[in-house]
Amino acid sequence: MEVELVIEVELDVFSGTPNPRWVLTALEGEELTQRLLDGSETPIPIGFEEPRLGYRGFIVRSTGVHADVLEKSGRPTTFRLRQAMVGAAADAERSLLQTNLDSALSPTESRLVSEAVMSELDLSTGEQSSAVAAAAASVCSLLYTSWNDFSFWNGTRRNDNNCYNYASNYASNTFAQPGLKGGSVFSALTVASIKAAMRRDGWIDDCNTSNLKVALVIWPGLDFHFYRKNLNSAGTARWCHKPGHTPARNTDNSGAYITSPQTCDRGGYTTWGGVMYSDGVRSRVVR
Length: 287
Prior knowledge:
Elements: E1 6-11, E2 21-23, H1 26-37, E3 58-63, H2 64-72, E4 78-81, H3 91-97, H4 107-123, H5 130-139, E5 141-142, H6 151-154, H7 163-168, H8 191-200, E6 210-211, E7 213-219, E8 223-231, E9 237-240, E10 271-277
């Protein structure tokens, strides 16, 4: 007997009345699952919510084969999508809003809610608002190193440590490769393969306690690269990185400070791979 493929989405938007819920079509479910597998979207724990009225993201509940696929890849089957909380674009949220909201609300209600949510998403720039940041801080805190002192990395350790070493805050002196510490190096230069290898090394998809936050990008078919988030003295994001054997730095290819690795000048590394976390350690051991 064929196993039913079901993904239910709940638009978390109301206060006094129940939130609208509906089920995605098979094609819509497959598209969302693929976006999760390739790292285009970052699932967030349901409890990771904003203390505000109005739009708070989508709650997604997967069952059947979709759930099996997500579980095997180490991803949650029930989660929240609210990409502004992780400083990312809200492409999947826009798509979900266009699926079958009309089945859960009257035409007038659907129009009013859609307009309100789209207005909220249009205001998102990929950086966290102060309210979102406050909500995130209540369940997640990040660990930082210096945003402008790279003497540890740029002396005798420079030639033998790469971007993955810097992102992990661990100088293995082996030009570390994702997955080697976990027993199996990544098998392809894809977001899914490299993130699976990172999970074998101990990285996780969701911020849960005190974590390093790193971002993955790929030069299609050729190379991978990582950035790690730090803060300057004013509390502004300063993402830093170490391109191969070269010195660690806090600027992009244009020489600008990196406030968002998703939008900075990355040269040929055009594929955005999303973010991952170190699971409560200041240095993630890599090989």
